[in-house]
Amino acid sequence: MAASRLRVIDLETAGNGPHDVCEIGWQDVTLGPDGRWRVDEGRGSRLVNPGRPITPETMAVHHIIDDDVAGAPFWKAVAGEVLKPEGGVQALAAHRAAFEQRYCTPRFTGGAPWICTWKCALRLWPHLTSFSNQMLRYQRRPEGLVRELGLPAHRALPDAYVTAHHLRDMLDEAPLEQLLAWSREPGLLPRVPAGPERGKPWNRLGVETLRAFAQDRDPNLRFSAETELRRRGATAEPTADEPAQRTLL
User: Where is this region: Disordered (predicted)?
Assistant: First the structure.
């Protein structure tokens, strides 16, 4: 089973603390006898007691209230059961998986590798205008996605269900090993996301502008700029015989 099952995970939380999960949803993607990946019937969700009140800001997103989770088990009682199911999984997946990995630590996952469908979407579908889970849903219209099962948005099971369709389509375009490799790297942004250069592809930027981005605090910006510099055979820092800033005269 482990060699033919990927489990997509989505979490809803009470806030930003380290143990604030209030719902976990999952949807399995399995390898069929025809050698094609498919979204199967393996799905579910569990409410989780976060151990503290849910903030109004997060209630306004997912509409889970304190009364809903008052009698639910705590995260440590739920996580292993979902993240390490009987038969195992070949990998776990999530959209912007770094968020889920904050809570789904190796203690609960058994060290399973992760696929980040956001990072993979950047690589496979760079022509799209936005890469959020829901925007991918409506830009791409994945085959077989049942609208009712993907609603309401911002609840754990519907969001995992939608993400699973993106993952299935990605596996039709790239091997699993490639998705895992992309997921281990920062996101390769197809365009500058903000600022004066917003919307420009990296190949339209000058070397000095790229070098400035390569010093940014955002690892995705740094990685994207560095990748373009390497493509040009340039470095992130000026070489000894190259002035840091060109003079006007």
Answer: 222-249
2-184 to CATH, choices 3.40.30.50, 3.40.50.1820, 3.30.420.10, 3.40.50.300: 3.30.420.10
Query: What global pTM score does this model have?
Result: 0.92
CA angle 62, 107, 52 (to 5 degrees): 40
Separation of CA 48 from chain center? 22
CB hemisphere CA count around 194 (13 angstroms):
4
Q: How far is it, in rounded angstroms, from Cα 114 to Cα 183? A: 7
Tokens matching residue 162: 């939608």
* Rounded-to-integer distance, Cα 51 and Cα 110, Å: 24
Share of the chain above pLDDT 90, in %: 90
Instruction: With a cut of 70, say whether residue 239 has pLDDT above it.
Output: no
Find out whether 187 and 122 touch, Cβ atoms under 8 Å.
yes
For 198-210, give one letter per residue: b (16+ CB within 10 A) or e: eeeebeebebebb
Tokens of 227: 């990748």
The one-letter amino acid code at 179 reads L
